[in-house]
């Protein structure tokens, strides 16, 4: 378009549409394309998980049994799975496990997320399990487990249905902090946690159960015909004790802890964390 005579300038074409017309809108810069990303195939998942193709096909059938909505599982059905199949019934920890599986934070778990989460939950290498547990206990996601978070977790798993002296829980927090806080800054970083747990595997679930017992894994895998998940999985050589054992004895020494760790299942209030202290 040319400006009025005498200006000698050419005006850029107008981008305003004529009344009653519409033009396609360009995608905003930086638009997140993950929402339209196609789900991974079974073959793709084999490459990024600890599961074989046959395992994933069986796990997919279990996923369908959870009655997914729009190919996703909601929080309620996932919590039912944790409680019914793995004996994890602490509401706070169930919510944290759900959030760790729900990578895209849309409040649903897709099959991709389910498969990747179960890869660690059922058959994770020891380092994967350590990092998983740390994420569970890091309640606010700031990459530290603070004393306040320790208090909330320990009080939640130790005093279920009973009155408890909060000072006693605070004392326990101080004892656990001494074992985990390797750089002595008053909080537990991921490096602190990984270092302490690598030295003493019994500290893996110091703040409550977030991994399954072997007997529950076996039962779950048997339901799915995933027997080979047990081999080389939760009972791998890297963790000679039952993985994720929270059979920690208050006031016990190393020998007492070693004796309790051999127990295949916890008795009575088996899901309450009992922390090993010097």
UniProtKB/TrEMBL annotation:
It comes from the Eukaryota. Residues 13-24 have a biased composition (Polar residues). The keyword Calcium applies. Gene3D superfamilies: EF-hand. Residues 89-124, 125-160, 168-203 form the EF-hand domain. Coiled coil: none annotated. It holds the Pfam family EF-hand_7. Keywords: Calcium, Metal-binding, Repeat. CDD domains: EFh. The keyword Transferase does not apply. Residues 250-261 have a biased composition (Gly residues). Residues 269-278 have a biased composition (Basic residues). GO terms for molecular function: calcium ion binding. Residues 1-33, 232-278 are annotated as: Disordered. This is EF-hand domain-containing protein. It comes from Allomyces macrogynus (strain ATCC 38327). The lineage of its organism: Eukaryota, Fungi, Fungi incertae sedis, Blastocladiomycota, Blastocladiomycetes.
